[in-house]
Amino acid sequence: MRVVYRGLAVAAAVVAAAATLAVVLPAEPDEVAAGPVTAPPAAPSSSGSAPSSPPAPTAPPTAAPTPVAAQHQVTPRPGGSLAPGYTAMEALYADPRVPKLTRSVKRMALRSPGRRFVKDRRSGLAVPRLPRPWKAYGAAPFTTKQVLPRQRGTAPRGIFVTCPLPIMEQKSARDTALLAARWTLNHHPEGSRITWLASQPVKRGWMLVYRVTYGKRTSRAAVVVLDGGMSKPGLAFVTVPDSQRKQWRDIGRVASGVRVLG
Question: Where do the record's region annotations for Disordered lie (predicted)?
Fold first, then answer.
């Protein structure tokens, strides 16, 4: 029995030794041993010193924010839409076609209103029905429209229209009327400029009378802005070219005759 046990002990020792060899023996040359992946060493410097660590990455530069004042340096284009950051009144003051309305602009004597009126229920206004040669005409895109006959050789002709205010209402009726007068340049020849002739408050609104110059020709015009009790104020606008100057007297009829529809 002692011989048997001694033989088993020898066999166990042989097996243990084999297991140890299996763990520590290196891999064969044609095998790839698994291991952690490391970055390749940095190339040595020209001085032969030890390689230094690469510099830490830096964040890309960011663009500096544009100052608010610089964002407002764009001048509004005359007759165009507002430049970013501009209010309606700032755009008006920047428009070279419209001079500043000063205290030197006087009031005008208003005539007694006539007895014949055209009712505009959309704007809440009643306006004079002007005598011949004025006549009613297709209103679109306005709500009422009266015109003078066309004259041979001239494109502009007298028009008198009403509609709800087509521009943004301002805190004061005076400022609203100024913006409305600027808007009417869209209905005059290109290059038109304004010269103020009269400015005054009227009941529930404001009235402006002005001359429009385009080249060698002119027109007389007026706007009246009134609160007619609608969601937006009502606008009455009349313009008559110098080729029909006999009807310039009707500018006064419009200025004095526009009233709130009651």
Answer: 35-81
What are the CA-CA distances from residue 168 to residues 9, 122, 205 (Å)? 108, 17, 15
Q: Give the domain CATH number at 206.
A: 3.40.1000.10
Residue 228 lies in a domain: yes
Residue carrying the six token digits 């839409």? 81
**Any domain includes 7:** no
Angle at 36 between CA 33 and CA 41, to 5 degrees: 105
Task: List, for residues 108-161, the tens digit of each pLDDT value.
Answer: 988 777 789 999 999 999 999 999 999 999 999 999 999 999 988 777 899 999
Between CA 142 and CA 118 the distance in angstroms is 13
Residue 41 lies in a domain: no
CA proximity to 116, closest of 139, 134, 100, 89: 134
Look up tokens 């297991």; give the residue. 19
Q: Which two tokens stand for residue 40?
A: 């390749």
How many domains in the chain? 1
pTM above 0.85, yes or no: no
Domain that holds residue 160: 96-260
Q: Are 159 and 238 in contact (CB under 8 A)?
A: yes
**Selection from 220, 166, 179, 215 nearest residue 197 by Cα:** 220
The residues pairing with 235 across neighbouring beta strands, listed in sequence order, are 163, 225
